[in-house]
Design brief:
46% helix; mainly alpha; 6% strand; 8 helices; 228 residues; single chain
Length: 228
Amino acid sequence: DALFFANIGYLPKPVNKRNWYRETPGQLFSHFHMMDENFLVDAYRKNAGTGVLGRMLDVLQRKNYRVSPNAISSNTDLLNGDPKLARSVDVIGYSGIDEFYPKSTSNIGKEAMKAHFNILNGQTKAESGMFGEHWSQSFVNAVDKTEQFRSALKTVKLTQSYSGHAGWQLSMVSKLMRVRESRGVNRDAFYIRIGAFDTHWQMKARTESLLGSLNWGLNSFTKEMEDA
């Protein structure tokens, strides 16, 4: 049902102890750089700024699939694709999607505040800066998509219970997959992340606990997919 790759390192070419420093463009002994290189899979930066899943989605999009890159709780370069395709990554919290301006103040309501923001970010003068225009359009698009997602997710009822950091994130993945039609998507890519594997002490016990939590999440997710 799934593939699990453990302890994957990064080497752009075969090296030995005499030439590895000269022949390796990345930093082999840095946890951060190793993780980053696994996200990019582009040692010589022939596709700078893109990640391996983003490039996979590029191929599908060019074949007329409706694709969506989704990061649960935190963004990643893994999902970045060709900027010419103008496809943004949706970053969604595992506990749900926050409403824009969720409460009224003493003198202005939610709808009135939304109207003010639409005016502020609406059509401007011909000489307005393109960066400001781009920011405003991105902002309005994000608010509209947030409302779309919130409305769709309210209808979802999962069959499984989820626990642990991995499980909570996979719960949101399950919900998004169940509303793929209302989202207008037929190919998704999802990114979730669990940390604390850099165990400098009590490695066996801590790794056992972390993988146990991951296993509970994957078990619920697998059953959810079977029930879908």
